[in-house]
């Protein structure tokens, strides 16, 4: 795969979108491929930073998605940076080993 596309429906108020609850997002980031995902009110943009960890189209429309795909296909450096940063985000925050460490730390603080 060259890109990972995660189009999720949002309503006319922007409710929905990609979130860290998505196992599909974790799997996509773990592949080290650039990810384009639907933004919405469920998207934690403090962590899922547009242009750093993934690409979030300005709107959840067909035209915005086509533009996002074209941008990533044409800008190889940007796409590669998203893939690397996304993988590092996964490794440092979402991986099973990181999750296990966090749980063990919680349990040892009794």
Compact description:
This protein is mainly alpha-helical and 110 residues long.
Task: Report what the structure shows.
This protein is mostly helical. The protein contains four helices and two strands. The protein has helices at 23-30, 62-74, 76-94, 96-108, and strands at residues 4-6, 35-37. A two-stranded parallel ribbon has the order 1-2. The radius of gyration is 15 Å and the shape is globular. The termini are far apart. The mean pLDDT is 90.
Mean pLDDT: 90
Radius of gyration, whole Å:
15 Å
Oligomer: single chain
Characterize the overall form. globular
Could you give the order of the helices and strands? Answer: EHEHHH
Number of strands: 2
Major beta sheet, strand line-up: 1-2
Structural class: mainly alpha
* Helix segment tally: 4
Low-confidence stretches: none
Descriptive terms for the model:
110 residues, mainly alpha, two-stranded parallel sheet
Fold topology:
Layout: E1 4-6, H1 23-30, E2 35-37, H2 62-74, H3 76-94, H4 96-108
Parallel strand pairs: 1-2
